[in-house]
Amino acid sequence: MAVPKRKHSNARTGSRRSHDHKEMVQITYCTGCSTAIMTHVICPKCGTYMDRKIVEPKVKKNKRSSSYK
Ligand SMILES: [Zn+2]
């Protein structure tokens, strides 16, 4: 089995881990309804992507009001 010959220095470990941090999520605003959305994602509120209507937005049903009608 291959075994490392020398211990890595703390600086070498730190410089390797310098790329391991989290990055901020890219946010843009929908052209249809101005909601903050992730880039390259269809707007969940109005179903628009690149100024085109792609899908009909899902309408949330209120479980309590629908079950007692
Ligand atoms: Zn939208």
Relevant terms:
69 residues; two-stranded antiparallel ribbon; 2 helices; 4 strands; binds zinc ion
Characterise this structure.
The chain is an alpha+beta fold. The protein has a domain at 24-58. 19% of the residues lie in helices and 14% in strands. The protein contains two helices and four strands. The strands form two sheets. The protein has a two-stranded antiparallel sheet with strand order 1-2. Strands 3-4 form a two-stranded antiparallel sheet. The longest helix is centred in the first third of the chain and has 8 residues, at 10-17. The chain is elongated, with a radius of gyration of 24 Å. The relative contact order is 0.11. The model has no long low-confidence stretch (mean pLDDT 88). Zinc ion (ZN) binds next to loops.
Global outline: elongated
Strand order of the largest sheet: 1-2
Instruction: Note poorly predicted spans.
Output: none
Query: How big a fraction of the residues is strand?
Result: 5-15%
Helical percent range? 10-25%
Q: N-to-C SSE series?
A: HEEEEH
User: Please, how many helices?
Assistant: 2
User: Quick check: average pLDDT?
Assistant: 88
Strand element count: 4
**For the CA atoms, what is the radius of gyration?**
24 Å
Distance between the termini: 70 Å
Major beta sheet summary: 2 strands, antiparallel
* Hetero ligands: zinc ion
Helix and strand composition category = alpha+beta
